[in-house]
Amino acid sequence: MTLEFPTHVDSEESKAETLARIKKNLEKTGMEYLYSIAEEMAESPYALELMRLGGLNGPLTDAMFQNMEGQPGAKASENPADQRLITSPLVQAVRHRFQAFQAFMHRLLHSGAIPPTGTIASVPCGYMRELLTLDFTDCQPRIIGIDKDPTALSGGKRLAKALGLNNVDFFHKNALALGAIESIDAIVSNGLNIYLSDKEVLQLYQQAFGSLKSGGYFITSHLTPEEDWNFSQIDEQELEVERNFLQHIVGARWLPFHRHHTTTKRQLEGIGFEVMDITFDPACRFPVFLTRKP
């Protein structure tokens, strides 16, 4: 069975079927010379899954973070194709984004901005690693994960159990139609809006705004267009491989939806958020916004 999500298509293609489909598509566009990149990257189970899905699902997103330094049980892969994916310019920016989300949440939790027993949430949550692996010394917040993908919810539940966390709840809901939900002290949303149109992005932000307590916090991020990037922090050869891989081989679903950080700031302020801080990764590809509901 194939399921359609804004972020990806759940597919049961075999490796051979995925490569055959990609080869056929490349031949149609006269880019069969790129097939060697597909073959090389298919040796990574993570890159193969990205080629199969056309975007990131919960397990694949979590795979980008689970072996980062400081994560429980982190162990670097020795697979050269895995290493090429993990060290690609985009994945490095995504990892910086993850660290920025955790840094903002750590600040809120340990400065008293969020009550010690308050409620924090991730929408959509995936495996919710950015919240579940925070330092909860001196605080015990309730943690809520919301996602429409059952696979993501199952993975989040397994991770919470492995970490020994009991104050965690997961809900099967659409991030763009949360409906009645309790007032929350802080919401993070770190991967959906890069797949959404401007109208849908505003809908996502409005859902978050309506679910927060007065004085609550919303943390989000967005992919910027190339004119915003700091190319002195990007390996140009690896960037060219990344472009070919994502655009012509993967057909990444997020590619049409880059936005200037000023556009994202304006969208958030238009909903009613106060933008308190913006942090950038070294390449300026994934700015992270800390905002507050007045």
Main CATH class: Alpha Beta
SS elements, strand count: 9
CATH architectural category: 3-Layer(aba) Sandwich
Determine the CATH topology. Rossmann fold
pLDDT < 50 runs, ≥5 residues? 1-8
Keywords:
294 residues; alpha/beta; Rossmann fold; seven-stranded mixed sheet; globular
Quick recap:
This protein is an alpha/beta fold and 294 residues long. The protein has eleven helices and nine strands.
Which SSEs are present, and which pair or pack?
Layout: E1 3-4, E2 9-10, H1 15-28, H2 35-41, H3 45-53, H4 58-63, H5 80-86, H6 89-110, E3 119-122, H7 129-132, E4 142-147, H8 150-162, E5 168-172, E6 184-189, H9 198-211, E7 212-221, H10 236-250, H11 261-271, E8 274-279, E9 288-292
Parallel strand pairs: 3-4, 3-6, 4-5, 6-7
Antiparallel strand pairs: 1-2, 7-9, 8-9
